[in-house]
Amino acid sequence: MDHFLYRDGELFAEDVAVSEIAAAVGTPFYAYSTATLTRHFRLFDEALEGMDHLVCYAMKANSNLAVVKLLGDLGAGMDVVSGGEYRRAQLAGIPGERIVFSGVGKTREEMEMALAGGIRQFNIESEPEMMMLDQVARSMGVCAPVTIRVNPDVDAKTHEKIATGKKENKFGIPISRAREVYAQAAACKGLDVVGIDVHIGSQLTDLAPFETAYGLVADLTETLRADGHDIRRLDLGGGLGIPYEQSNTPPPLPSDFGALIKRTVGHLGCEIEIEPGRLIAGNAGIMVSRVIYVKSGEDREFLILDSAMNDLVRPTMYQAHHDIVPVRAPEPGAARSAYDIVGPVCESGDTFARERQMHRLNAGDLVAFRSAGAYGAVMASEYNSRPLIPEILVQDDQFAVIRARPTFDEMINRDTIPVWL
Ligand code: LLP
Q: Is 412 in contact with 385 (CB distance < 8 Å)?
């Protein structure tokens, strides 16, 4: 459920008309709903009730400072994957003991930054990384809390670019080698091994792969405990999918996911962490765009929008579907067309949808891309020298610009011309 609903034929974000935001900030823009973000975080938090737990929001989904602060104020921890995300978490006031650091390529500088600023744990993904962290921690005279991410070789049954739990993926250490690597970790004076980490992929619409992976983690917990390791924390990753197409059967709910966690690892008495990103932010955001032209091709009609693949790359990159709806609801019985919906960028890949059935639209009309709150603004670029589009946060009947649209000169002035030119 989200908070983007029609009232009297007008799309609203909570209690604000989307057209009102468009008039104030221009198009295109992203708009996020506080109520939806809050609701989705709470669903996860409640799903793990009764277990010692921390929901660590995967900031990569949407790392706007306001979004991070909003979730942090609700008690969320943060899952960060770069020094930049760590810094954002810090600036949003998230205490170090609620920040976990994931990612396959943490640099020495990132490790130093997190150890100096405070960290709940590093999720280690390889032996060389483990040796580096041990060295960095010892050189700083501290001990780094770590889990080791295991790769359970489970098929997450999702898009190949976002599956991470198969042995051919770059993530984690093979679960078959876990005992050996944990023994090595235990011998490192700069490391404190606190638990196990696993994350098998994103946009999972079936719970079975989670069940298999968590079952393997439960077995591993017992094996490692028998080997003498004090496994007291399990980071079970993120990945629960969202309904991108309202016409499809909805994916499992956070409560189903929570019940699965209790069933598979609840008996171990470990502290549980999860790292959801998409389900918290995805349906809490829309991207609003204006039709520039309706162009008739030889065998089709193109809806040319003022947003493009640089603003929302998911359709181009993953052939992802986003529902695209008119901001002004069509009159009953209005004519329909099948449009190819495209942006102004100079490549054919700049296509949001092909032969999408919609009520007829005209130049100047506003449309909203649903489910654009996660992996939308964060994946945007300035390709074609198109400035990043603004982000808006709505709460009840108020809205605020939480990232402003840069001017052309602000965008361009980051370049410098060398003295010899
Ligand atoms: N934890 C780790 C270690 C991850 O790598 C990810 C996502 C998450 C948590 C959060 O997963 P979520 O709950 O959001 O599914 N750009 C792609 C998605 C990439 C996901 C990468 N890792 C997309 O637009 O679909």
A: yes
β-pairing, 77-80 vs 99-101, is: parallel
Cβ–ligand 1 contact at 85 (below 6 Å)? no
Q: For residue 194, report the phi and psi dihedrals to the nearest 5 degrees.
A: -105, -20
Q: Taking Cα atoms as reference points, which of 68, 79, 41 lies closest to residue 275?
A: 79
Q: How far is the CA of 241 from the centre of ligand 1 (A)?
A: 10
> 138-161: b or e for each residue (b if 16 or more CB lie within 10 Å)?
eeeeeebbbbbbbbbbbebebeee
Integer Cα distance of 194 and 235 in angstroms: 10
**Structure tokens belonging to residue 371:** 């489910």
Q: Domains of the chain by range and CATH?
A: 4-31+282-412 (2.40.37.10), 34-281 (3.20.20.10)
Nearest CA to ligand 1 atom 7: 202
pLDDT tens across 14-65, in order? 999 999 999 999 999 999 999 999 999 999 999 999 999 999 999 999 999 9
Which one-letter DSSP state was computed for residue 240? B
